[in-house]
Design a protein that fits this description.
Elements: H1 2-5, E1 14-17, E2 24-27, H2 29-33, H3 42-51, E3 55-58, H4 61-70, H5 73-76, E4 78-88, E5 99-106, H6 109-123, E6 132-138, E7 141-142, H7 156-167
Parallel strand pairs: 1-3
Antiparallel strand pairs: 1-2, 4-5, 4-6, 4-7
Length: 169
Amino acid sequence: MRKGIRPDLRHRPVIVLSNNDGCVVAHSSEAKQLGIKMCQPFFEIEDLYFRENVSVFSSNYELYANLSGRMTLRKEGSYAQVVGIVLNTNSFRTQAYPCIGLEYPISDTRALIRYALKLLDKYYRSGYLYKRAGVYVEEVIPEKNTTGDLFAEAENARQNALCGLIDND
């Protein structure tokens, strides 16, 4: 999940530690290739942290709930017309969050992620300490109120199968 809000972490080993930073509760495939295991105490892999330049983060359950909660449109039978991201460096300042108005309403998880990543690539700045990050959708409507894209109808069954796999991950 961290790689979704920090593009600079792509292709790097990343781990997330438990509430008290005692053990690994999530890891990237790159970290797994180094032999880092789930639930492994951090003190056992501390040397890898320095030697292999592993990025280490404390758990942020509010952020994870925000990200996963925003990607459940399909389960609710809803479609979004706007996708946006939250990148906040100062929790005391009101800030406008960038968003993209979609050509037609969608519930495709892959498309929502693609739009969010496009915004992230445009607005993320390396070197800033972000206090809050997330993905949001707006102008959510029921499936029965959508017109969709006439040319994409043939892909619906395949898209639904793929998104079903992502949604259940």
